Every structure is written in structure tokens, then in C-alpha cells.
């Protein structure tokens, strides 16, 4: 909640200031883009669990990655970009506020 007050100006969210603060505080540690209350290693573990869940759901839905166009909004560090590429996605566009 403190960060909400720090990075808002009236009703406007100052995203540039927020992300500059996070990256200056944590550098290229996953706490900068992930859960800041967990270690870098714990954030890696969470990404790996998320990957397993994502791939399981895609398998259950019979997603054919090589035939799938992906728009990844909020791609962050590109973790899921690599997961998608490794699973055959060729038509990919990732955008992120940072």
C-alpha cells in the first residue's frame, strides 16, 4: 500500500517511477519484477511451477504451439517467451511497460 501512495499522483499511476525504483533496488534480480518478498531463487521456483501449470493446461486444451500466434502483454524478463519458443511458437509478439 505504501508503494501505491509513493507512485501515484492524485489518480495517475507513475509506472516509469515505480519500475525505475524496483530495478534500482533489486537490479536484475527477479525480485525486481516478481515477488519482492521472496528471494531470487524462490522467484525462479515460482516461474518454474507456473511453467508446468501453463504447459499442462495447454496440453489439456490441445494447444498446437506451432500453429498459434501469441500476443504476450507484460512479458517482463521473457521467461514465457522462451517457454513458448521451446514449444514451437513462431508467431510471437511481446510487449511490456518497461
Topology of this protein?
Elements: H1 2-6, E1 8-9, E2 12-13, H2 15-26, H3 40-60, E3 69-73, H4 79-86, E4 91-95
Parallel strand pairs: 3-4
Antiparallel strand pairs: 1-2
Protein name: Methyltransferase domain-containing protein
InterPro entries: SAM-dependent_MTases_sf (IPR029063)
Pfam family, one: Methyltransf_23
In words, what does this structure look like?
It comes from Candidatus Scalindua rubra. This is Methyltransferase domain-containing protein. InterPro entries: SAM-dependent_MTases_sf. The structure is a single chain. With 98 residues, the protein is of the alpha+beta class. The chain has one domain. The chain is built from four helices and four strands, in the order αββααβαβ.
- Supply Rg: 16 Å
User: How many distinct folded domains?
Assistant: 1
* Number of DSSP-assigned strands: 4
Q: How would a crystallographer describe the biggest sheet?
A: 2 strands, antiparallel
Which ranges are low-confidence, i.e. pLDDT below 50, for 5 or more consecutive residues? none
The number of helical runs is: 4
